[in-house]
Amino acid sequence: MEIGPYVRRYVEETHAALADPYLAHAIEQIVPVLLAAREADRTIYFFGNGGSASTASHFVVDIGKATIRGDSRRFKCLALVDNVETLTAWANDAVYARVFSEPLATLARAGDVAFGISGSGNSPNVLEAMHVAKRIGLRTIGLTGIGGGKLKGAVEIPVVVPSNSMQHVEDVHLLICHLLTAYLRDEAPAPPGR
Question: pTM to 2 decimals?
């Protein structure tokens, strides 16, 4: 296939994954949870594998930095994927399925937020983390696609991108990161001072 038609098809398929009303509904559900976490000085934990790990780190940078307003209360965010030493220790000494759940069990407290990202919705370590998050009393949000997988039923707020292409699913996950950040920066009410 020639490059031009391939590019057009890719863009059209990505656009189709964005056109469904699920996106606005998801943002409407997620924003109050994140604002409540900031108001209560709770921590939001982000995690995922591969490209989703990158998106988790990206979320933390964007929401943690771009939403700062003077001396107002800030979002407390942590990407569990960014502590390579802890992640690899759990993977090596236990099982890879516990690389997020064990740090979460150590750090999190009731009222915090677990924000898991899994393109397939079937990543064992993301699912195990959500199991632990629920046991502790965290709010749970999951970004997924390809039908939602097991993550869809394991979280309070599932966001299922309507696509079977991992590339389009990950494209939309990153867009959700930017959309949430922009909304929290531009439209959400300013928080009280610290």
Answer: 0.94
